[in-house]
Every structure is written in C-alpha cells, then in structure tokens.
Design goal:
- The complex is a heterodimer of chains A (394) and B (180).
- In chain A, the strands form 4 sheets. In chain A, strands 3, 4, 5, 8, 9, 16 and 17 form a 7-stranded mixed beta sheet that branches.
- In chain A, helix 5 crosses helix 6.
- With 394 residues, chain A is α/β, with parallel strands linked by helices.
- Chain B has 180 residues and is an alpha+beta fold.
- In chain B, 24% of the residues lie in helices and 26% in strands.
- Chain B has 4 helices and 7 strands.
- Chain B has a 7-stranded antiparallel beta sheet.
- The longest helix of chain B has 24 residues.
- The C terminus of chain B is likely disordered.
- Classes of the chains: A alpha/beta (394), B alpha+beta (180).
- Chains A and B meet through strand 1 and strand 8 of A and helix 3 and helix 4 of B.
Chain lengths: 394, 180
C-alpha cells in the first residue's frame, strides 16, 4: 500500500509499505478514505519533535471504512465508517475511567521511553514519534487502529467525510481549549493563531457563549476565515498585540487568552533571536513568544489555555507576572473520546461546520508537495485533506 | 524525622505502580499461570507449581536469562506474597498489594531482595528499570486486556514492518500491492 513516510527534516515521501494487519485482539484495520495534515505534523516535518526515525508513517487525522476487526472488538464490524481519534486510549485505566483519555496509562508500547521524558508514561498517538509509541499513522491507504473498541467513532451514512474528519483531532482540540477558558457570560477571549486549531477554537468559544473572540495572526487570509466565523481580528504584523488588546478591552485585558500556536511561534527582536539560538543549541526546545505575550495580556485573575503543542523546555517565561496576576493555566493533549459524540451531534445540527477551513484537497500521492505548501502557508493554504486512492485531476 | 511512608526502601530495590483494579484481582492475575508470558523477556515470571511453589524466569541486564524454582516465603494474607529464589539469582523479593480507598485501585509494591542486589549501583538501577517495565506491562494486561505493541505493524523503516526492523523485508514487499 501507499503511505506517507518521514525521511528526515522536511522530507516526506509516498512509498510502498506492507499493509497493516490485526496484531492485538482489540485492533481494527481501516481503509482510509480521508486524512489530513495537521499543524502538529509540521513539528515532525521540521524535525523539532523528538523520537522520529526514517521510515515512520505519519498521520493522526484520518477516517475511513473498517475492513477487519480483532477478536475482542464487538462494537464495530467490517463496513462501518469511523473517525479515528489521534490519541489512543485503553478505556480501562485510572485516567480513561475519568474521561482523561489522553493520559491513558496503557496505550503506549514504549512506556519507559516517555517516562524518562515526562516522568510518567504518556498515551499512545497515531503516527507521532516513538515518544508516543511509534504507531504507524493514517496518512496511508490502510491503518491499524489499536483499542478499536474505545477510540473510533461510528459515523452515520450520508455525512460527507469533510464534515466529520476533523473529529479526529483539531475539532475536539479546539473545543477542549475553549472549555479550558471556562467562558462566563460577557467574557472576551483572545486567540493567538488562526490556523486550523485556532479556527476550531474560535467556533467553539462562540458556541460556548463567549461575548467576543479576538483572533490574532499575521496572515490576512486566515484572519478573514476567522472573521467569517464571527471573530474580531488583529494582524500582529501591524502593531503591538498588548496595546491592541488593552484598547479593545477597555484597559482590563482579555478574560482568557488561548495559545493555538505552540512551540514554533515566531517572535521578534532580541528575544526571538535568543530563542532561536538556544533552540539550535538544544538548551531550549520550544519557542514561546505567544505564551509570554499571553501572560502579559491576560487580565488579572484570568485564564490561559494552551492548545498548541509544546514538547519540552521553554525559557524566560514571566512566571512572576503570572503569579502576581493570579493567572490560571490549563492545557493538555486533547481528550478526543470525551468530546467526539457531542461534537458529532453539533455537526449534525449544523451548529459546527468544520469543513469551512479546508483550503486544499489532493490525492495522497501529492503529500510531499502539500506538506511544503502547508509549511509555507502558500496559496492561502489553511488545511489540507489527502485522499488515498484518488488520482490527480487532469 | 525518619521516612515513615510505605515507600521507605523502595529506592534501593523496589518499584511501586498503581493498578485500577481491586487487590484480589491483581493477586489472582499475578498468580495466574496462563498470563505469565506477559513478563517474557523481563525480570519476572511467576508460575504456580503445586501448592506452595513457583517457577520463575528472570532476565537481568548483564546477567542473561536465569531460571529457577521458588517457594513461597511468606503468605500472611491473600494480599501479600513473597518469593525466595532457591538458586543464585537477583529476582527474589516480595510483593505487597495495598488497596486504596474510594476505588482508586491497588498499589502494587515489588521489592527485590536487597542482599541479591549489592553488586553495583548500575546493576541495581537496571534491575529496577526492568522490573518497572514488567509491572507497566502487567498493568496493561490487567487493565486493558492486552499489551500495547507496534511489533509487526506497517512501516517504512528498514526491514519493512515493525520499528525494530525484525520482520523480513521481502515479506512486507510481498504483501504490498493491495487489499481487495
């Protein structure tokens, strides 16, 4: 079968690999009908997230048709359409029992490896480095899904892939990030990053009752999409974010600030130069200018919600500012399985239209070009959906 | 003030992991012959032999595979068991199960016999690391019913299938070509 294989920094190739098979009793195998490139795939593409090996199959946003189920799987059968969560959860551990699926104790085949980095084993993830288990990802014609009786969400017939594909990751991620803002009536929320996850967060915040959502980015085309969803917008290349937010909130500051950018944020000035030098030297793994800015901008007693992925060490965080303002931080890997039933219901009621952000659809064979396009944000590229089995139109 | 917590002594020769099951379930599973392969390749396999004995096998860094017979050293209640090697091996030790309140699971504390772990700090750390991995896998088996693995999955790594490259590349190429 064809699969998107990581071959090194900014080098992915569509290659022939063996088809997946049932390995454990709770596995399923899915024929992938749609798969997306995620912003967090770019951390792997740029080789700034640890644990990648040449040949690893990428992809953690995918859906398709079940073709085979393991002997212990009773909830699914061949022919079912499913969306596959990016996080893998066993359903039986302390964390899964509490709905904290992304903290699952048992889904990572390399618990020792992640324990060394995180202190505890992290959950397994589809197609996301050996730190999260080295599972083969879903940017492929077929994919093996562990714990197929816990994660995959059955999709009723008649709903196009494009409407539900993002239930795999970015829609629940945006929803959870919005929930972490603990929106109260009248709240103003600032969202850094109008990329795919930021767009999902903006829609979720408005649905959860935020009075105003202010989207911050440097790309007008992304801000236009955010504005169409109901957000106010600010282009950060045209002025100081802090000054703007202070003015926009009558001097109080946003009630919540949501960082949908994460570890590869672009800063400016000396601090940005220092971050890049430290990142190159390996003394800092993540560049946190957005997080620093959010700490400065949020109102006293406000909340900062982190959605964008952070992988390791960040430097020069103004913790004294956060402490003295009484800021609450909330963050974490998305608990897809905790939200996807609700979100599917909202999609079916037409209250959420995640497909609005798709800018490019291409055959799987075009993955290499699509990664380049997405990285450069060229051609107004906001979200790429890849179609295995589809050929390029003439 | 001296450390009075149950963790005293764990640093030297023990590992503790909490499992989301009642203590009786953990104990029964620990003793179940059918599930002992869960520990294959790791520190401990316990397998019942008659009423009071176990066969065990241990893989210890720098020591290779060691097998032997063990008799129950103490059994104060169904929740506590110990084992003692009848041969030269560093795997003798004790198992303690502490059921936590409010359905928070069972603490599983395994302490290796310190007399057998005096060789070096490095060997002791290796034994603890392997023991911890064994317990993590035991927990996977107990809570999830299977041990998570990627061995044998599709891969573009050298070797074609699993991340260790242990699958035959020709086999993977044979199967590349389409599921109808």
């Amino acid at each position: 079968m064809k699969a998107v294989c990581w071959r090194g920094t900014r080098d992915v190739r569509v290659e022939d690999v063996a088809e997946p098979k049932i390995i454990n009793p709770r596995d399923i195998v899915v024929r992938v009908t749609s798969t997306a490139i995620c912003g967090s795939d770019l951390h792997l593409y740029n080789n700034v997230f640890p644990g990648m090996t040449s040949g690893d199959i990428l992809g953690h946003e995918c859906m398709g048709e079940v073709v085979e189920v393991g002997p212990s799987v009773e909830s699914l059968r061949a022919g079912d359409r499913v969306v596959i969560p990016c996080t893998i959860a066993c359903g039986g551990c302390f964390y899964c029992k509490q709905g904290q699926y992304s903290a699952c104790d048992n889904s990572n085949p390399n618990p020792s490896s992640s324990s060394q980095i995180l202190g505890y084993p992290c959950c397994g993830m589809m197609g996301y480095s050996s730190v999260t288990g080295a599972y083969a990802g879903g940017q492929a014609e077929y994919v093996r899904v562990p714990f197929g009786d816990v994660g995959p969400l059955k999709i009723p017939d008649g709903i196009p892939d494009e409407k539900v594909l993002f239930l795999s990751d970015i829609l629940p991620t945006g929803w959870m990030g919005a929930l972490n803002c603990a929106v109260q009536p009248g709240d103003v929320v600032a969202v850094w990053g109008a990329g795919p996850v930021g767009q999902m967060a903006i829609r979720s915040l408005l649905l959860q009752g935020a009075e105003r959502v202010i989207a911050i980015d440097r790309l007008d085309d992304r801000l236009e999409v955010a504005a169409r969803a109901g957000a106010e917008t600010f282009n950060a290349s045209e002025g100081q974010v802090y000054e703007f937010l202070l003015e926009a909130t009558g001097g109080r500051g946003p009630d919540a600030c949501l960082d949908a950018v994460g570890m590869e944020a672009d800063g400016h000035g000396l601090m940005d130069a220092a971050d890049r030098v430290k990142q190159t030297l390996g003394v800092e793994t993540d560049r946190p200018p957005v997080l620093r800015e959010a700490i400065r901008c949020v109102r006293k007693g406000g909340t900062i919600s982190l959605l964008g992925v952070y992988a390791g060490l960040v430097d020069s965080l103004p913790m004294g500012v956060a402490f003295n303002k009484g800021v609450t931080f909330r963050m974490g890997q998305v608990r897809v399985q905790a939200f996807h039933h609700l979100l599917l219901s909202l999609i079916m009621q037409d209250l959420l239209r995640p497909e609005e952000i798709i800018s490019h659809t291409a055959p799987l064979s075009d993955a290499s070009e699509m990664y380049k396009l997405f990285l450069k944000k060229a051609d107004r590229c906001l979200k790429v959906v890849l179609k295995p089995g589809q050929t390029r139109a003439a | 003030m001296a450390n009075s917590s149950p963790a005293k002594g764990m640093k030297e020769a023990g590992v503790a992991i909490t499992m989301q099951r009642p203590a009786q379930d953990v104990f029964d599973r620990w003793m179940a012959d059918a599930h002992s392969p869960a520990f294959a390749g790791q520190v401990i396999i316990v397998r019942r032999e008659g009423e009071t004995g176990f066969a065990w096998r241990a893989t210890v860094t720098d020591a290779g595979n060691i097998e032997g017979g063990t008799s129950i050293a103490s059994s104060e209640s169904s929740m506590t068991a110990g084992w003692k090697s009848t041969m030269q091996a560093p795997a003798a030790g004790s198992l303690m199960l502490i059921e936590l309140p409010y359905m928070r699971g069972t603490e599983v504390r395994v302490v290796l016999d310190p007399d057998r772990l005096k060789e070096s700090e490095k060997a002791r750390e290796a034994a603890r690391g392997e023991l911890r991995l064994s317990l993590l896998r035991f927990r996977q088996l107990l809570e999830a019913g299977e041990i998570a693995t990627v061995r044998g999955q599709s891969s573009g790594r050298k070797g074609g299938r699993d991340p260790d490259g242990s699958e035959d590349e020709q086999q993977s190429l044979k199967s590349a070509g389409g599921r109808s």
